[in-house]
Amino acid sequence: MNPGNLHRYFILLIFFFFSVCNWVYAQNAMLNTKEINQIADKFYLLSQYGCNIVVMAGPEGLLLVDSGTKEYAFKTDSVVSTISDSSIKYVLNTHFHFDHVGGNMKLSETGATIIANEETRKRMLSEWNIPEIQGMKYPKVLPYSDKYLPVICFEDSLKLFFNNEIVQAISYPNAHSDCDVIYYFQASNIIHAGDLFFSNGFPVIDIYYGGTIAGYIRAIDSILELCNEKTIIIPGHGVISNRQKLNDYRNMLVESKIRIFKLIKEGKTLDEVIAANPTKDLLKEGESWIPINIFVNTVYQDLSKK
Ligand SMILES: [Zn+2]
Q1: What is the CA radius of gyration of the chain?
Q2: Contact between 112 and 88 (Cβ < 8 Å)
Q3: pTM exceeds 0.90 for this model
Q4: How do the domains of the chain map onto residue ranges?
Q5: If you measure from the C-alpha of residue 241 to the centroid of ligand 1, how many angstroms do you get, rounded to a whole number?
Q6: What is the distance of C-alpha 127 from the center of its chain?
Q7: Which stretches of 166-242 are DSSP H helices?
Q8: What is the CATH architecture assignment of 31-254?
Q9: How far does the centroid of ligand 1 lie from the alpha carbon of residue 124, in Å?
Q10: How far is the CA of 176 from the centre of ligand 1 (A)?
Q11: What b-and-e string marks burial along 13-48, b requiring 16 or more CB atoms within 10 Å of the CB?
């Protein structure tokens, strides 16, 4: 082999080495185990999937609460498989919004049974289309096809006996939407509150699909009654929380509601209420996942309804 060829082989070898490294890196990024974190015995949390997905892994298999967005659905199964070889047996949906049910089809194709309340299924059968709020446009979501739909439905509540745990589902009408459910894992003292709690700021209240601030506060009151100081509370969005923080959140919402209602009674218009910034000392802009004026707008519209 002459020195020229040797040089060429050496470059090819280096190129091959970096290609392999790149491939391994890409695979690790695809199956980034940091995206799934253990939060308790048998329980894991997948965040950055549009919503908080809770995974329960036990002797009878895997159970997920919520399935994230459609865009991330291709990854969910792979990431979950890094913690267990078992198949996903159940997916429980907290409500019908696209960032909570978008992965349903992918997971049902792998054999998972989708469970939700009847209102969620009903909502998934028609389109979701809300008007622009304070310049924020939400994507229109078309009715879901059969493979996305829950196949076991309940009305007010359900008990699922799985992995030596009683999983209690409780419906809350007219809160974040008209079909919210929380899932309470009794033995492990863990609650997935869905979008009845945003630990990253003001809540989204879907007033166009049955949500109300009064119902939202009522739902939190009921969740607080189920909890004790050791309960792990998983919000629909944001970091893991606890009873004390949920209680503070409830008080902040009660105060916001009182202040906005007072301005409505004084005859203030929506623009005047937003300009008055009635919640400014409760949560600052930048501390809230959704812009504050969107929250004030929706509460104003909700409380102005005759
Ligand atoms: Zn939602």
Answers
A1: 23
A2: yes
A3: no
A4: 31-254
A5: 18
A6: 20
A7: 213-226
A8: 4-Layer Sandwich (3.60)
A9: 13
A10: 7
A11: eeeeeeeeeeeeeeeeeeeeeebbeebeebbbbbbe
**Residue 81 CA, ligand 1 centroid: distance in Å:** 26
For residue 4, how far is its CA from the centre of ligand 1 (angstroms)? Answer: 64
Q: Write out pLDDT tens, residues 185-196.
A: 999 999 999 999
Ligand 1 centroid to 95 CA: how many Å? 7
How far is it, in rounded angstroms, from Cα 298 to Cα 110?
39
Cα(205) to centroid of ligand 1, in Å?
8
Distance from the alpha carbon of residue 195 to the mean position of ligand 1, in angstroms: 5
Query: Ligand 1 mean position to 22 CA, how many Å?
Result: 37
Which pLDDT band holds residue 78 (cuts at 50, 70, 90)?
Answer: confident
pLDDT digits (tens, 9 = 90+) for 10-27: 343 333 333 433 333 333
The model's confidence at residue 49, banded by pLDDT at 50, 70 and 90, is: confident
Determine how many CB atoms are found less than 10 A away from the CB of residue 142: 10
CA 37 / ligand 1 centre spacing (Å): 23
pLDDT digits (tens, 9 = 90+) for 235-285: 999 999 999 999 999 999 999 999 999 999 999 999 999 999 999 999 877
